Amino acid sequence: MNGVLNILKPPAMTSSDVVTRLRRILDVRKTGHTGTLDPGAAGVLPVCVGRATKIADYIMASDKEYIAEICFGLETDTQDSYGAVVNRSDVTVSRHQLEGIIPQFLGTIMQQPPMYSAIKHEGKKLYQLARKGIELNKPARKVRIHTIDILHGADNRYLLKIQCSKGTYIRSLCADMGRALGTCAYTGFLMRTRTGGYAVEDAWTLYEIEALCKTQEIERALVPMETALDFMPRVFCEEYLYDILTTGTPVDLNKARDLQVEKDVHYAVYCRNELIGIGKRAGDTLKIISMLKLREG
């Protein structure tokens, strides 16, 4: 079984819990998610199965979309509704005021990762250290916020739609927006509605996946690797290159002049109408850096 499952992660489960549950349901060993979603959050969690685990990093690099509720007037240690309150404010934020500070959070910004996160420090996840009362200041990192739209709200609670790059912490974004308005804020509700080409309206619950397995209809939910890589440019190689490609031997571009391969671009490489792997230019060669084709014999 090789492909990607668009899973609707429920709240109160970690992303790792979802993967472990799926491994048991599918009775497979190789599974991996494409980007951690907060335990209290719900939404899209693409899970790669079998050889598709090799494309997880490429899916993970895709842009994300979230629906989040920003709640002003309280600050929690986890920056969401599951944490302990550590600060309060009597400031009331109007919609007009919120609209006024949104532009300063658009584009490329520096963001401080929250302590309650899965980022690792010396082999330990930050949330594990936070639970022991150990706090670290991880270096701020660049993220990109494409859009922030106010969908609804009043009286210090507003529902936002946020489109952003991978690695963006919505909890930190809401907390920073609170500080920019001279108050404090936390994320009351969070749902990831899109990861790359995977949308929440197309996602499957774990119960639905289990039912499909029982009726041997899991292919209905399994996205083939070819489709999962639709966002990546493709390169089609002549049939005589098949044995070269499937052994991982770099293709000499000086000889295969029909191949137009640019530098620093990842390609889905096809030959004989089969997906061979993900390739990249290395000097004057096309090199398969992630082999997806299971070589026969």
Secondary structure elements and pairings:
Layout: E1 3-9, H1 15-26, E2 31-33, E3 42-49, H2 56-60, E4 64-72, E5 74-76, E6 85-88, H3 95-101, E7 107-111, E8 120-121, E9 124-125, H4 126-131, E10 141-154, E11 157-164, H5 170-180, E12 185-195, E13 198-199, H6 206-214, E14 222-223, H7 225-228, E15 234-237, H8 242-246, E16 251-252, E17 267-271, E18 274-282, E19 285-291
Parallel strand pairs: 3-12, 15-17
Antiparallel strand pairs: 1-3, 1-14, 2-3, 4-11, 4-12, 5-6, 7-10, 8-9, 10-11, 12-13, 16-19, 17-18, 18-19
Helix pairs in contact: 1-6
What is the compact description of this entry?
The protein has 297 residues and is of the alpha+beta class. The chain has helices at 15-26, 56-60, 95-101, 126-131, 170-180, 206-214, 225-228, 242-246; strands at residues 3-9, 31-33, 42-49, 64-72, 74-76, 85-88, 107-111, 120-121, 124-125, 141-154, 157-164, 185-195, 198-199, 222-223, 234-237, 251-252, 267-271, 274-282, 285-291.
